[in-house]
Amino acid sequence: MNPSPVPDRAPPARPARHPCLLPAGVLLAVSLAGAAFASIPPWERRETKRPVYPPALVSARWLELNLGARGVCVVDARPLERFRSGHIAGALQLDAAALAPDPWSLGARFAAAGVPGGGTVVCYADRDGPAAAGRLYWLLELAGHRDARVLDGGLEGWRAARGRIERGARAPRPARFEVAPDTTRLADFRYVMDTFGTFGHTVMDWRPPGAWAAGHIPHSLPFPLARLVRADGTLLDSLRARAVFETFGPRENDYVNLDDEFIVCGDLAADGAPVHPYLAARLAGIARVRCYPEGFAGWERRAGLPQVRIVDAPEVARLLGTPADDAPPRGVILLDLRGEPDYDIGHLPGAVRLPLYEIESALEDTLRAHWPDADRASIPMILYCYGPGCVRSRNGATIAARHGFRNLLWFRDGTMGWRSAGLDVVKTCRE
Questions:
Q1: Domain termination site, one of 143, 173, 203
Q2: How many domains does the chain have?
Q3: How far is CA 430 from CA 124, 347, 425, in A?
Q4: 335-389, pLDDT tens digit by residue?
Q5: Model pTM score
Q6: What CATH number is associated with residue 349?
Q7: Phi, psi of 203 (to 5 degrees)
C-alpha cells in the first residue's frame, strides 16, 4: 500500500510587511530575480512543492481483510466473458474499455452497474489487460469519485493470496452516484494544442520510444512505463515510482518539473501498456494529471495539427539533395539553431543560422528572406543543433509549431550525427 498523504504544516503566521518599507537593495534583487525568471524558457523553469501521495493501491491482504465490509466496493474492469470465467467474490463487472470518457454521463453508467459515488472503490484486472484497472481508476476520478483504488497485482495476485473466486455473473443492483465530475482530469485536442510547450505543462507519451520517434505531439516525451512494474506484476510503491519520474526528461540531468500539470497522451489501446499512464502519474504523487485519451493516433487523424518526427542523417541528406553554393534548399526549410562561431566552423549544406534565443523574434523575417512562399501546413522544416545532448532543436520545433508549421523534422543527431555518417559540412569564412 501507498503511504497515507502527509498533511503540510503551515509555519506560524508573521506580520505582513509593506513592500515600500523593504530596503532598496532587496527590492532591486526581487525585481532582477523576477526579470530573470521571466526570461527563462517555459520548459526550463522549476518550482518545488511537497508531493502528496494518494492511497492509489491496495494489497491482496488489505482486500481480504476488507472484502464485504460496508463502504468497500470491488469492480472487475475486464470484459464480461472473462469476468464470468472467474472473478473476486462479490465483485461487480464493468468493462473499462467500453466506457466513453464523458464526465457528464459516467456517473449514470457507474450507478447502473452498482458502483456507488461514495465509499472506497477497488478496481482490478489481470495480466492480459493490466491497464484496464488504471483506466477505470481514471474514469472514477473523472466522474468525481474521491476514493478510487487499484488492487496491486490484479487477479493473479489475488489468486496467489488464495483469495475467494466466483464464476458466472448476476444482475447488478443500481446504486447512487451523485457527485460532481472532475473535468480537470480530461484533456481534448484543443487543450493539448493550447498547452504543449507552455510553462507548467508536460505532455507524457506512453508509447515505446520507436513509435514516439516516428511521430509525436510537439514537446511531448516518451515515458518508460515498464520500469514501474515488477516481474510479479505488482507496481513500484509511490516513492520508487516518483524516483523514476524524477529522471524523466529530454536528456540526462535535464528533467521535467513534477509540479507541472501532466497530460498523459494515450489511453488503454492496442499497444498493451503495462500500467495505465494516468495511474502511474498519480501513484508518483503528481497532483495535476489529465488524460488525453485519443493519444497520438487521434491527434494524427485530425487534419492540421502539428507533429514532430525524428529523422536521421541519410533522410536529411535525401531531403536536401545537393544545394548549389550553400544556398537554402527549395521545398524544405533547414535551420541551424547554434551560435555564429559553431555555424561558421561547419554546418549542413544550405542551412540558415537561426539561434534558438532568436527564433521567437526572428523566425518570420528568416522565412520572408529565404522561404517567402512556404506553405506552413505541408513544407518540411528540419531543425538541428549539436547532437543528442542538445535540445535546442527540440525546443525550436515547439516554437515553430506555435508559428503554424505542421511538418516538423527533428534532426536530433545534429552536426555530430551528420559527420558520423561521413557527410561533409560547409565552412563559412567571414572577413
A1: 173
A2: 3
A3: 67, 14, 16
A4: 999 999 999 999 999 999 999 999 999 999 999 999 999 999 999 999 999 999 9
A5: 0.85
A6: 3.40.250.10
A7: -100, 120
